[in-house]
Structures are given as C-alpha cells and as structure tokens.
Amino acid sequence: MKEKKRYEIGPGIGLTVVPTTRFKLSYMSANFVLPLARETAGFGALLPEVLAAGGTRGRAALEAELEELYGAILSSGVRKKGECQIASLGLRFPESRYTGDETQLARSVELLCGLLLNSSFSEEQVETEKKNLVDRIEAKLNDKRGYAIDRCVETMCADEAYGVPELGERTQVERITAAELTDFYRKVQKTVPVELFFIGSTDADELAQKLRTAFASVQRELRTFPVTEVRPAGKTKEKEEALPVNQGRLTLGFRTGITVRDARYPALLLFNAIYGGTASSKLFLNVRERLSLCYDVSSIQEKVKGIMLVASGIQPADRARAQSEILAQLEAMREGAFTEEEIREAVTIVTNALRSAEDATTLIEDGELTRLLAGGGLETGALIDALGKVKKEEIVAVARTVALDTVYFLNSSEVKR
Amino acid sequence: MSIVECAAFPESYELYRHPSGLTILVNENRELAKAYAVYAANFGSVINHFRVGENEVRLPDGIAHFLEHKLFENEEGDAFAKFGKVGGNANAFTDFDITAYLFSCTSGFRENLEILLDFVKRPYFTDQSVQKEQGIIGQEIKMYEDHPGWRVSFNLLRALYRKNSVRIDIAGDVDSIAQITPELLYETYHAFYRPSNMVLCVSGNASLADVLAVADRILEPEKPGEPVVRLTEQEPAEITQSFITQQLPVAKPIFAIGYKDTDPAHGAELARRECGMEILSNLLFGKASRLYNELYEEGLINSEFGAGYACSDTFAYLEIEGESDRPEQVFERVKAEVARVRAEGLDRAAFERSKKLVYGRLIASANLPENIGNMMARSFFLGQRYYDRFEAAKEITCEEVAALLPKLTESAAALSTITPQK
User: Is A416's pLDDT higher than 50?
Assistant: First the structure.
C-alpha cells in the first residue's frame, strides 16, 4: 500500500486517498459529519437514503446503472462516532483489471458525485424512504444483542448527545416533509464538514482534481467537527425490560474516559484484549468456559466517546451470577491478576487485529475517519510500536479507571420450556 | 503439485496431494497483510446416518456442530488460548455439508498452522467436558431461537423438504444434544475426520512451502479402514406444506419464500447452475427488476428484500426474503411474476446486466482471503474448481438461463412467515 494522501477539495471538504492495488474492489465514500442531536437525528438518517434513491432518474434506473458497473454496491446509512452522526454514501466497485472495462473508475466516481449533488427531493421518494427508515428503526428489536446494547447506551447517556439513537425517532421521521429535507440538505451542503475517501487503484492527484471540479459549484462555509463530551461515571443506573424471548441479554455499560487520541489508548486496547475482547480473555474463559453460563460474552470499546460495553446472552435465572462474575473479573484486572505472558499475548492479538484491518477497505476508511473526528491518535504502525512499550502498571491503571455506569437487562417475559 | 488457473482473470491456485491423503489448495497473495487457513471436513449437519463396514450409526441432530465445539479442547486445555499466544484469530463453523476450522494471522503463519493441524488430529472428549458444552450450546441454540431471520429460513426448509435432513437445525435442539456422548463423538470423528475426507485451503500472505513445512511434520498417513457410506432417504418432489408461520417479538412480519429445485446438479455443472440461477434470480427479483420496483413503490416490501440460490450436492432451493405487512400478497405476486416471465421470455438487455452483476459480485466475494479459502473448500467437496463459477458467469447465455425458468415450479413453492408476538 502506498502512502495515503490528504487533500482539501473545498472549504470543509477533505479527501483522503489510499492508493493501492491490494484489493479487487475500490471503495469510495462521502461522509457528512453532523452533530448528533435529538432535533436533527431523523433528518440526518433520512438524508443518505433519499440521496441513494437516484434523483430524477428514479430507483430502478439507478439500479440498472449499478448492474452495468458490474454490480457496483451502493451503500447508504448513518454511523454513530462519539457525538457525531455520520451520514454516508459509499460505492464499492470491481477494478478494471478484473472486468476489462477501462471506464469503470470514471463512471463510478461520476455516479457517486451525481447522487451527492442532487439537492431537490421528490415527495414520493421522501415518503418511500421515510417508511423504509421507520421499518429499520422498528426492526432494531429483531436483533436482541444489538437491541440490548442500544438500550443500555440510551439509558447510560440519557442526557448526553451520545444517547440519541443514530437512526432518529420514529415520530420525528414520520413528520419530515420533502421541502424540509431539501432545506436541511441545502444547509448541510453549506455548513457541515464532509470527508471523502477513496481506497483502491487510482492516481490520487487526478482524482482530487476531478472532485474539485465536481464540487466547485457548492457554496461552502468552513466549520469544524462537533466535539464529543467525555464524562466520568455517575451513580450506577439499573434498567430492566422484558420481551417474550428465550434468552436474557445482560449488557453492562462502563465509562473509560479514554479515547483514541489519549496516551493511555494503547494500554486500553491491551486491557480490553485481556479482559473480554478475545476468545482467550478472562470473560470468555470464566463466564463461558468455566461457569458455562453463556455462549457469547465480550467487551467492546467505543473509541471516541470513551465507553465500554460488556454484552452477554444468558438464562434469565443466571443473571446475578453472570453479573457478579463479569465484575469479579474486572476486579481481578484492577488487582493486577494477570501475567506478563498474558500481556505479550494481548500485544500479538491486538497487533494482528490492527494489521488485519488493513486488508479491508471499509475498515481502513473507518479508522481514518475515527482519527479525524477524535482529532488525533496513532496510525497503525506507530500504535503497534506503542503496544510493545505498555507496562503492566499502565494496564492496571486503565482497569482502575474503568467504572460501571449502567446495568441493562433484557428479561424474558414468559417462562418457556 | 498442479496449478489451477482462472480463465476469467489472471489468477491461480496450487493444488497439492499430500502423502497423508489430504488435499491442499493454496491461493497465495503477497499483497495482503493477512494469511487465512481453513481446515475442513466433508461432513456437516445433514449427515445423520451412515455405515462403516457392518456397523450402521444414527446420529443425534446437532452432533456435527457439537463436535466442532468440542474439538477445540483437549488434555492441555483450549486451542483458542494457543492461537492467542501466537496472535492468530481462530474460529470454526458448521454448515449443512461442511465443518471448518480456521484462523487468520498477519505473522507467525507456520506456528498458527501447526496449532490448527495438531488440535484437529487429537480429539479428546470426556463426560465432564461434554456436559459443560451442553450448557454453552444450549445458550447458542436459544440465541438462534430468538433470531427471527434465522427462524424464518429454517422454518422454510421444513416446509420445502420432507426427508432431506437439511430440514433439521444445524445446532440441533436442547433434547437432541442431550443424547450426545463421548463415545458417539469419537465414532463420528473417526468416520469423517480422515485426511481423504478433508481439505486444507490457504489464501493470502502464505505459500505452499510454508504449508508443507508444517504439514509434512504434523500430518500422519491415513490408517487403512473400511469406507464410510452415507445413508440418505430419497427426497420426494413434493414439498411438506406451502405455508408455515411462527410468532416472535419482531416489529413487522418477515417472510421467506422458497422454490425447491427438485433436480440438483453436480460438480462443474452445479457451479454453472448456481451461476445461472443467481442471474435468473436477479432478473426476476433484483433491485432493478420490474417486480421489486412495483412492490417497493406499492409499499408491499422495503429495502430488506433479496433473493439467492442455495445449493449443495443433495439439495438446492431459491430463497426470497424480506419484510412485509402482507407477506401472502407478496407470495402471490412472486408466483404471478414467474408465470409472466415464463410466458413472455427473458429481456435480453436485462439479462446482460444481470450477468455483469453476478460476475462482479463473485469478484467482490473474492476480495477477502476468508471468502476465497472457504469457497475453495466448498468447491473442492462439490467436485468443482473454485474458478468454475467465474468462468460460467462470463460464458453463460440467455438461452441457458431461460431454460432454468421451469425450475421455479409453483407446486414446489412455499411461504414462511414470522409475525409479531404481542
């Protein structure tokens, strides 16, 4: 992989190009970095869906164009990164050396730019995409693990922007009109920072020039990224809900206060690997293998907001045992009950994960975007070097910083067999 | 050693018959950071009855998956922990017709491969470890019972198939796994985990020399033994039922529509059939299709709508999945559209586009070393070259695809739904 290149395409429009022949498909994405807020979340979530509807040519014609581009995959959606709502359009398409079609790159870039530059939406398209979005909001319930994690975060950060669901609220989405969304997009085009990415075979300078020309007509004001508030844990909150499910979902929310730009971040990654991030971690070996309480248990770090979630699926009757074991393993970490050997293993595992991420275009993009939003953070190579220098005391210190904030339990509302 | 080349684009893999009886396939790509290895047995959840010599064995549902879990553990503990020490990311999966053990790594490939080949060849089962696993897998089963997308598909298979064991859940159920004993696990292991019934596929940043440096040391020649004969029941052309439904906590009803292919193909012919059926499925139900856009605009479906062809040596079906407040109406419209296209024929321009899409999506699947390794293994067990499907997608004609239309028979179609539980 060659060195990445950064360009300023216009005021507040950044472009990151990673020129590489490593992949069979190129990936290009456009990301609007919106502040995550209750008043606008529904608009932010609806916007990429309507942009992806194809403008005046309509959805069916757009899909036919994508088929012509050898089944190029158009993705649209929102991600929550810290207290930012990232509204994105992305396009993955086979590189010309696999299709034999030399126009592939130019046509793909043109298609994505065309979708982004359309700023008037038809009533019909907006109504259809509203229904779709409402379905997706409601369908969060279908994935119980994800649902329990979302509910835990919403409880934990009830009075913070981070607690706002990135898909917005149903009632808000249902009220949005085509005129309001058009107006919203005009403001977004003018004032919201945009980050463009291209990962694949291309001449970076040529691509930057092409994009400069494409976006030259858009009037822009320079703004900075929204800032994420990192808070300490408060008094532990408990929330329980019930559904007619076979399995209970226990999700614990912690505050680490450590983000990707923090000097303690390498130690946090090692803490996570030893505590609950892998199949040889303390949570896996104890809650699952020793006590046989669950199939899945793991800890996940949010890198911009500085929180950690521990998620597990258990028999409802085992709730207290599972929770006390999860906390007991954290206590063991705080007391330094892990060896230098375990630290070395964690370094190899985390190094492997970081290197592996360089084999996936979407993960490269996500990592770059995370560092941009957090306003810093080590690049893969430097981060791997830093892992090797972390001392045991630093991991213990991280474990002592991690504080329980919220316990969420999705219980079973009926007794099944 | 022989080289298997792709006629569609410049790429190849090496095929090596190891003296142990194991076949090794290596798709080396030094541009990637990662190397991926998958060690697979030609044995999955659908095999539940076999004979070795005079000895006939019936297996409890879910044993292939149970064995997959248990193989990770031996006297020295958990193999996951060993991979952890050398930075490998290990996992395993069980499907209808394959059980696979795998890892990926960005350094220490040989050390990781040694752990993989070593633990798979040393089964170790005790009453205590079997009992412990019943608790863990019990929770895995419950997790899937709460997964509506999983349930709707498995219920569909029950509706489509009468005898074929593809109708049984891969992990079995809490009662069937309670019947599993260490003895039965050993018997199953020795019947199916023989080098000649397995394949080792490697893709990404590793070479055949890397593989052989370990394999030559670890693998032992297969012990001569009686051949294993798989016993199956003849699947009739008829389906079990045309409608099946279940209630679960979902927001909106979800559905799966299936067409049973009553005459599955084999070998390279199956790769071509699969490709033809994917093109047909995209023509009829893809996002550019007439039906998709009509249903979408009428609000009968949303963007969670898709179709694909699932196939193996012993079963094949087309499945269409989605969300709808009126799944029965969607089912009727699907059947009507198939009838219309059968009467009017395929649109040639749409065929050319679908062909491009299917080829491009194959390229997309080959963008990850994990997919390449898994697909090489699957192709090998089906008697195919991995590249057969890519070549078929370049060559296949509109007439060939049109000839597949009669496979979508109304009498072999079923609807499965999951409706909201209040």
Answer: no
**Among A128, A296, A315, whose Cβ lies nearest the Cβ of B297?**
A128
Phi, psi of B162 (to 5 degrees): -100, -45
- Domain span including residue B412: 243-420
pLDDT digits (tens, 9 = 90+) for B149-171: 999 999 999 999 999 999 999 99
Partner-chain residue, chosen from A98, A142, A313, that has the shortest CB–CB distance to B143 = A313
DSSP strands (E only) in B44-189: 49-52, 55-58, 73-74, 77-78, 89-94, 99-105
Residue to mutate among A132, A147, A295, with most B CBs inside 10 A, is A295
**SS3 state of residue B352:** helix
Query: How many angstroms separate the CA atoms of A218 and A225, rounded?
Result: 19
In sequence order, the β-bridge partners of residue B78 are B73
Q: Show residues of chain B in contact with A131, CB under 8 Å.
A: 299, 302
What is the distance between the alpha carbons of residues B47 and B169, in angstroms, rounded to a whole number?
12
pTM of the model: 0.92
Nearest chain A Cα to B130, which residue?
A292
Q: What tokens appear for A182 in the block?
A: 């058009």
Identify whether residues B212 and B91 lie together within a single domain.
Answer: yes
The phi and psi torsions of A264 (rounded to 5 degrees) equal: -85, 0
Query: Cα separation of B301 and B297, whole Å?
Result: 8
Higher local confidence (pLDDT), A219 or B111 = B111
Measured between CA atoms, the residue of chain B closest to residue A274 is: B84
Nearest CA in chain A to B390: A98
List, in sequence order, every beta strand (DSSP E) within A233-392.
237-243, 248-255, 294-302, 307-314
Q: Give the minimum alpha-carbon distance from A218 to chain B in angstroms, rounded to a whole number.
A: 30
If you write DSSP's letter for every residue of B233-258 in order, what string do you get?
A: PPPPSS-S-SEEEEEES-SS-EEEEE
Output the six-digit token pair for B107.
């350094």
Is B236 a member of any domain? no
- List of domains in chain A: 5-215 (3.30.830.10), 237-412 (3.30.830.10)
pLDDT, one tens digit per residue, over A146-180 is 999 999 999 999 999 999 999 999 999 999 999 99
Measured N-to-C along each axis, helices A380-389 and A340-357 cross at an angle, to the nearest 10 degrees, of 180
